User: What shape does this take?
Amino acid sequence: MTQSVVVQVGQCGNQVGCRFWDLALREHAAVNKKGVYDEALSSFFRNIDARSGDNGPDIYKGKICSLKARALLIDMEEGVVNEILQGPLRDVFDSKQLITDVSGSGNNWAVGHKIYGCQYRENIVEKLRKTAEHCDCLQCFFIIHSMGGGTGSGLGTFVLNLLEEEFPEVYRFVTSVYPSGEDDVITSPYNSVLAMKEFNEHADCVLPIENESLFEIVNKIHQMINSGKLGSTVKQNSLVTSGAGSAKTLQEKPFDAMNNIVANLLLNLTSSARFEGSLNMDLNEISMNLVPFPRLHYLVSSLTPLYTLADVNVPSRRLDQMFSDAFSRDHQLIQADPKHSLYLACALLVRGNVQVSDLRRNIERLKPSLHFVSWNQEGWKTGLCSVPPVGHSHSLLALANNTCVKPTFVELKDRFMKLYKKKAHLHHYLQIDGMEQSCFSEAISSLSDLIEEYNELDATKGGPRIDPSRLKIAV
Amino acid sequence: MSIVTVQLGQCGNQIGHEVFSALCSDIRGTHGLCSKKENESYHDASKERFFCEEESGVPAARAVLVDMEPKVISQTLSMAARSGHWKYSSHSHFCQKQGSGNNWANGYSVHGPRHKEAIMDLVQKEAEKCERLGGFFTIMSMAGGTGSGLGAFVTRCLRDAFPTSFILNHVIWPYGTGEVIVQNYNSVLTLSHLYHSSDALLVHENDVIHKICAQLMNIKQISFRDVNQVIAHQLGSVFQPTHTAGGGSGYSRNPLGDLMETLVPHPEFRMLGLRNIPQMPENSLPYSTFSWPGLIKHLRQMLIANAQMEEGIDWQVRPPHPGSSIPSTNKALHFNTSIANLVILRGKDVHGVDLGSFRDPSLYTSWLKPQEAFNAWETPRAFNKYEKCASLVSNSQFLLKPLDRIVGKAWNMFASKAYLHQYTKFGIQEEDFLDCFTTLEQVISSYTNL
Assistant: This one.
């Protein structure tokens, strides 16, 4: 069994990360009835003998004593991390896993990346090494951050670079919250584009998230609950937005519901690696199957169902509805419509009491309405995990490598150019040691190239299918 | 003679468990329908072939379990132990922590060399426990990374370490609409490599077994366990003890050797398909009766028309008239030409069953006499609660179309260079791919021109 380490950077990263750890504990508590520290738990948690405080030795087998998250919390302001350390999750984090400063990054990527990066480099490397040493077999780093600010974006991508240098064999999955058009941080386009250049070169997989989509999903659920449709009540702890049953319930904040969705995404992504099933799907398989060309590693995700109704019997029609929903526009975690764009590859990770025939039936049913690239007409990667998420009898995570990410990137580029043409706010960046005009021109060029690759793929959509001629053998 | 089974990867281990389970339950079953002496003889032969007596009295399967991540093996071991009737030896498994990531190159070039010694050590130990080693049976899928890549590497190691032993690879072909996106690459790499090291490949296709589960077994929500149990039944029907035709009183002692001898006369043709009838849900068995002539007739037509199961057979297909050079009409009717066939009959009144229809020369290519091309094994001892059971192992054009499809899809992807960087980073280059494509196009061409 392998371990993963979560590196949460910046305000957004830490808030989402906090929700992740809370829900992870809730999930394991529901599955692990005997209180024994097992391999599933060890993928994200260490078990230490807390009698010697935080420096206790790791206990690899036997009863759970004190669980410590395999995490690194980084923020250049203290507010968010301090709150976490005073909250109900304080015992889950080791004091040695934190890196904080006081003044923040001023929403400036260059401050995060160049100044703090340089300043904290050794500290970060040392702490990463320590976390890695506690792992028997480290498979993956998950970075959680937002793109629009200074710390998450700048320092976050600096850490990404570091991870590639120090741990080249370990996978790097990045969960990034992209800024929306109405983002109140004016320089968010600069920060995002500068960060994206780092993704192109150093990330294995990027899971883009947009707040608008999360917001719409939260609203949809509220409407469902409040409309009292069908007279049925929704199981509270089954909401993909809910933290019910977890440690933090009493203090739910406005962003908590949205952040819970992202936390659930990460839990589902890693479920097949942690729990058993008839067709396992590990993290290295996700990267292998969904990334046909190194730079095209952006995966659009969707989670279904959003909630479970309280009545227990779920007819297979509901199951099929779950599959249909996974491909609909309003279940995607970014503003995108995969059905009308081109699929390069698609992965379906099913949890719970679902069998291979259900999977096959739905793939056959949905396939005709989806467009796949000519060289990957049956490009499906599937996984079956027996353990469902808390509150559900089954669930589905769909990951798509689809050209529908292109509009997000094009808009980002447009917003960037609007500022850049007028050289607005540029001096804040250029005055930082190590930042030059070329950083900007290279970044926008890298983004343009990426958009162009998607354009070329889109151009093949719907065109005549010409299969290359086969090798001829002399008889 | 004993057979050592090597279970590779998730699929190999899951199926392996069902196979030993089915064998054990058949041995212990009371539906033998034959004399006590016959039953005991069968019991002893089967046990020697597949199980090893241990001090605890619970027979241990002659198997080595290999996987690059621990979850499946630990599940397999505990399920076997829970049965109470058989188990795996406590030290016959090898696993790692990280899996192969569905990457053939990772399985073959990285995990293979790294773990060769440890794995071959286990195989050696298991082989030494056999009084007489009859050969190796490996179970693997070709779609993933471990079964396929590491499996191909281990097969080569087996060949090097046991040059005179028989090696039969049982290979599972994945569903056509993807379980793994790079499955066609992994398949092409596996098949071409196996072709060079193993004696024969015995193939099961997931799509076919799935249909059997849906239409014949009437299972509503088909799970991989259901699929694996059908596969286990089919394998058991071939490898449980039998008397070879004309053989003396005892059970045949060299099943793998006999199989190779009868079915693989030429090294270019090693792909074996398997058909078994009847197949039905267990609770229908007491209400059904079969006649041997009926079963034989269906089985023969399944062979000629390349039918995947006993329903929906195309009865229009007929063998070409002897003496006609190119059976052009039959090419349109998809007649399946055979190189060699083996029929295995188990159950009541099996002696004296007329198999003349299988000796019809028009079924076969011209380069073997029908007496050489066709063989039959039988036993009056019924198998797995089926009063009568007939299996066909065939070296014919059964797998030609599926193979062609896989190579076609892989080539299509290869031409666009998609995913190649995932393989080159572990040392499998474009030239290696081309070599594999060439090998398989050659195989396709050979089978097409039968």
Observations:
- Chain B has 15 helices and 14 strands.
